[in-house]
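Appendix B, record 7
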Amino acid sequence: MNGPIVIGLAGSPRVGGNSDCLLAEFLAGVAGGGVATRSVAARDLVFTACDGCGACSSTGECVHGDDATVFLSELDAAAGLVIASPVYFAGVPAVLKALIDRMQPCWSRTYRLQTPRRVKRPGAFILVGGGGDPFGTAGAEATLASAMQVCGFSVDARLRHLGLDAPTDAQARPDLLAQVRSEGAAFAARVLKRAGEAF
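C-alpha coordinates (predicted):
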Protein backbone atom coordinates (compact mmCIF):
# COMPACT_ATOMS: atom_id res chain seq x y z
CA MET A 1 0.00 0.00 0.00
CA ASN A 2 1.41 3.37 -1.01
CA GLY A 3 1.38 6.49 1.14
CA PRO A 4 1.31 6.89 4.92
CA ILE A 5 -0.63 4.44 7.06
CA VAL A 6 -2.05 4.98 10.54
CA ILE A 7 -2.30 1.91 12.73
CA GLY A 8 -5.20 1.71 15.14
CA LEU A 9 -4.52 -0.67 18.03
CA ALA A 10 -7.55 -1.95 19.93
CA GLY A 11 -6.57 -2.87 23.48
CA SER A 12 -9.79 -4.28 24.88
CA PRO A 13 -10.37 -7.99 25.39
CA ARG A 14 -14.03 -7.35 24.52
CA VAL A 15 -15.10 -7.31 20.86
CA GLY A 16 -17.28 -4.37 19.81
CA GLY A 17 -17.25 -2.47 23.10
CA ASN A 18 -16.89 1.25 23.67
CA SER A 19 -13.18 1.52 22.94
CA ASP A 20 -13.55 -0.53 19.74
CA CYS A 21 -16.42 1.72 18.68
CA LEU A 22 -14.50 4.94 19.29
CA LEU A 23 -11.39 3.58 17.59
CA ALA A 24 -13.45 2.77 14.49
CA GLU A 25 -14.84 6.31 14.44
CA PHE A 26 -11.39 7.83 14.91
CA LEU A 27 -9.98 5.75 12.05
CA ALA A 28 -12.96 6.70 9.87
CA GLY A 29 -11.98 10.32 10.47
CA VAL A 30 -8.37 9.53 9.58
CA ALA A 31 -9.47 7.84 6.35
CA GLY A 32 -11.76 10.77 5.58
CA GLY A 33 -8.73 13.01 6.00
CA GLY A 34 -6.91 11.16 3.22
CA VAL A 35 -4.73 8.73 5.18
CA ALA A 36 -4.94 4.95 4.93
CA THR A 37 -5.61 2.98 8.11
CA ARG A 38 -5.06 -0.49 9.46
CA SER A 39 -6.82 -1.79 12.55
CA VAL A 40 -5.18 -4.37 14.81
CA ALA A 41 -6.67 -5.90 17.97
CA ALA A 42 -4.26 -7.07 20.65
CA ARG A 43 -6.76 -9.81 21.59
CA ASP A 44 -6.45 -11.35 18.10
CA LEU A 45 -2.66 -11.65 18.16
CA VAL A 46 -1.01 -14.89 19.19
CA PHE A 47 2.24 -14.14 20.97
CA THR A 48 4.49 -15.10 23.83
CA ALA A 49 4.80 -12.75 26.78
CA CYS A 50 8.14 -11.00 27.25
CA ASP A 51 10.26 -13.20 29.51
CA GLY A 52 12.93 -10.59 30.23
CA CYS A 53 15.69 -12.63 28.59
CA GLY A 54 17.55 -9.49 27.54
CA ALA A 55 18.49 -10.76 24.08
CA CYS A 56 17.05 -7.69 22.38
CA SER A 57 19.57 -5.53 24.28
CA SER A 58 22.26 -7.06 22.08
CA THR A 59 20.41 -7.60 18.81
CA GLY A 60 17.54 -5.11 18.82
CA GLU A 61 15.22 -8.00 17.96
CA CYS A 62 13.00 -10.30 20.00
CA VAL A 63 13.83 -14.00 20.10
CA HIS A 64 10.14 -14.84 19.73
CA GLY A 65 9.02 -14.88 16.09
CA ASP A 66 5.28 -14.48 16.44
CA ASP A 67 2.40 -12.07 15.84
CA ALA A 68 3.92 -9.47 18.18
CA THR A 69 7.11 -9.49 16.09
CA VAL A 70 5.06 -8.90 12.94
CA PHE A 71 3.13 -6.12 14.67
CA LEU A 72 6.34 -4.34 15.70
CA SER A 73 7.55 -4.49 12.10
CA GLU A 74 4.29 -2.88 10.96
CA LEU A 75 4.65 -0.28 13.70
CA ASP A 76 8.12 0.63 12.43
CA ALA A 77 6.64 1.40 9.01
CA ALA A 78 3.55 3.28 10.24
CA ALA A 79 3.17 7.03 9.86
CA GLY A 80 0.94 7.30 12.92
CA LEU A 81 -0.46 5.26 15.79
CA VAL A 82 -3.64 5.47 17.84
CA ILE A 83 -4.31 3.13 20.74
CA ALA A 84 -7.81 2.68 22.17
CA SER A 85 -8.32 1.02 25.51
CA PRO A 86 -10.69 0.70 28.44
CA VAL A 87 -9.29 1.61 31.84
CA TYR A 88 -8.97 -1.35 34.21
CA PHE A 89 -7.95 -0.51 37.78
CA ALA A 90 -6.37 2.75 36.56
CA GLY A 91 -4.32 0.79 33.99
CA VAL A 92 -4.75 -1.01 30.68
CA PRO A 93 -6.07 -4.57 30.16
CA ALA A 94 -3.65 -7.46 30.50
CA VAL A 95 -3.65 -8.36 26.80
CA LEU A 96 -2.64 -4.84 25.82
CA LYS A 97 0.00 -4.61 28.55
CA ALA A 98 1.48 -7.92 27.40
CA LEU A 99 1.81 -6.55 23.86
CA ILE A 100 3.35 -3.32 25.18
CA ASP A 101 5.91 -5.36 27.11
CA ARG A 102 6.93 -6.96 23.81
CA MET A 103 7.91 -3.46 22.61
CA GLN A 104 11.13 -3.82 24.60
CA PRO A 105 13.22 -4.17 21.39
CA CYS A 106 12.22 -0.59 20.52
CA TRP A 107 13.65 0.55 23.85
CA SER A 108 16.79 -1.53 23.35
CA ARG A 109 17.48 -0.10 19.91
CA THR A 110 17.31 3.44 21.22
CA TYR A 111 18.83 3.21 24.68
CA ARG A 112 21.14 0.19 24.48
CA LEU A 113 22.22 0.09 20.87
CA GLN A 114 22.09 3.86 20.30
CA THR A 115 20.25 3.53 16.99
CA PRO A 116 19.80 7.04 15.55
CA ARG A 117 16.36 8.39 16.33
CA ARG A 118 14.08 9.63 13.60
CA VAL A 119 11.55 12.43 13.96
CA LYS A 120 8.69 11.21 16.11
CA ARG A 121 5.51 10.34 14.23
CA PRO A 122 2.06 11.43 15.42
CA GLY A 123 0.45 9.32 18.12
CA ALA A 124 -2.81 9.42 20.05
CA PHE A 125 -4.72 7.37 22.56
CA ILE A 126 -8.38 6.96 23.42
CA LEU A 127 -9.27 5.89 26.93
CA VAL A 128 -12.77 4.93 28.00
CA GLY A 129 -14.28 3.89 31.29
CA GLY A 130 -17.21 4.05 33.60
CA GLY A 131 -15.45 6.51 35.88
CA GLY A 132 -15.40 6.44 39.64
CA ASP A 133 -11.90 4.99 40.07
CA PRO A 134 -10.17 7.20 42.66
CA PHE A 135 -6.93 6.91 40.69
CA GLY A 136 -8.49 8.00 37.39
CA THR A 137 -6.67 7.40 34.12
CA ALA A 138 -3.16 8.50 35.13
CA GLY A 139 -1.71 4.99 35.25
CA ALA A 140 -3.08 4.01 31.85
CA GLU A 141 -1.93 7.30 30.34
CA ALA A 142 1.61 6.87 31.64
CA THR A 143 1.84 3.33 30.25
CA LEU A 144 0.56 4.30 26.80
CA ALA A 145 2.61 7.49 26.56
CA SER A 146 5.78 5.64 27.56
CA ALA A 147 5.24 2.86 25.01
CA MET A 148 4.37 5.25 22.21
CA GLN A 149 7.37 7.49 22.75
CA VAL A 150 9.78 4.57 23.07
CA CYS A 151 8.46 3.27 19.73
CA GLY A 152 8.98 6.62 18.01
CA PHE A 153 5.60 8.33 18.34
CA SER A 154 4.75 11.61 19.98
CA VAL A 155 1.57 11.91 22.00
CA ASP A 156 -0.41 14.46 20.02
CA ALA A 157 -3.88 13.68 21.34
CA ARG A 158 -5.10 12.26 24.65
CA LEU A 159 -8.80 11.50 24.42
CA ARG A 160 -10.51 10.52 27.66
CA HIS A 161 -14.16 9.50 27.70
CA LEU A 162 -15.50 8.47 31.07
CA GLY A 163 -19.07 7.66 32.03
CA LEU A 164 -19.29 4.94 29.37
CA ASP A 165 -20.24 1.96 31.49
CA ALA A 166 -22.43 -0.38 29.45
CA PRO A 167 -20.64 -1.90 26.40
CA THR A 168 -22.84 -0.03 23.92
CA ASP A 169 -22.94 3.41 25.59
CA ALA A 170 -20.66 4.99 22.98
CA GLN A 171 -22.86 3.79 20.11
CA ALA A 172 -25.81 5.63 21.64
CA ARG A 173 -23.94 8.95 21.61
CA PRO A 174 -23.94 10.41 18.07
CA ASP A 175 -22.43 13.63 19.42
CA LEU A 176 -19.48 11.70 20.84
CA LEU A 177 -19.02 9.67 17.67
CA ALA A 178 -18.95 12.85 15.59
CA GLN A 179 -16.44 14.41 17.97
CA VAL A 180 -14.10 11.44 17.80
CA ARG A 181 -14.38 11.27 14.02
CA SER A 182 -13.43 14.96 13.89
CA GLU A 183 -10.43 14.24 16.09
CA GLY A 184 -9.42 11.54 13.62
CA ALA A 185 -9.56 13.96 10.71
CA ALA A 186 -7.38 16.43 12.62
CA PHE A 187 -4.95 13.62 13.37
CA ALA A 188 -4.77 12.78 9.66
CA ALA A 189 -3.76 16.36 8.94
CA ARG A 190 -0.91 16.05 11.46
CA VAL A 191 0.21 12.78 9.88
CA LEU A 192 0.31 14.29 6.41
CA LYS A 193 2.17 17.35 7.66
CA ARG A 194 4.75 15.26 9.53
CA ALA A 195 5.17 12.89 6.57
CA GLY A 196 5.78 15.87 4.31
CA GLU A 197 8.40 17.24 6.68
CA ALA A 198 10.26 13.91 6.64
CA PHE A 199 11.27 14.34 3.00
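Remarks on this record: The longest strand covers residues 80-86. The chain has a mean pLDDT of 93.
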